[in-house]
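I'll show one example:
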Amino acid sequence: MPQLEIEYSAKLPIADELSKLAVDLHYVVAREADADLGSFKTRITPLENVVIADGSDRHTMVHLDIRLLSGRSERAKFATGEAALAALRDRLEWLVGDYAVQFTVEVHDLDRANYHKHVTGVAQVPG
């Protein structure tokens, strides 16, 4: 159920770390939001056309969008966002060099009544 999407300025030298970051985030969000690790999905999208602030090439961004099934408290969603932001920074900040990077996280509700899922050929996820 948890849907994560990482969007980032393509010029950042972070591509090699993004799959590891996704797995880190799966564990962090599973812990904070009490979610099943086996149901996580993360999409990673490099953005070629990003304009930030004065448009300087130094300005970049990494944004994480987290969608969780509705019903969690505001406190749980806040804790999830804070923990996810820390994971983003821990995994990526040391790689960005002289770029000015805005790391952001937003946590959204997925409406339980309107979320539909079918899984076939399920592999067991250790955990």
Notes: DSSP finds two helices and four strands in the chain. The first helix runs from residue 18 to 33.
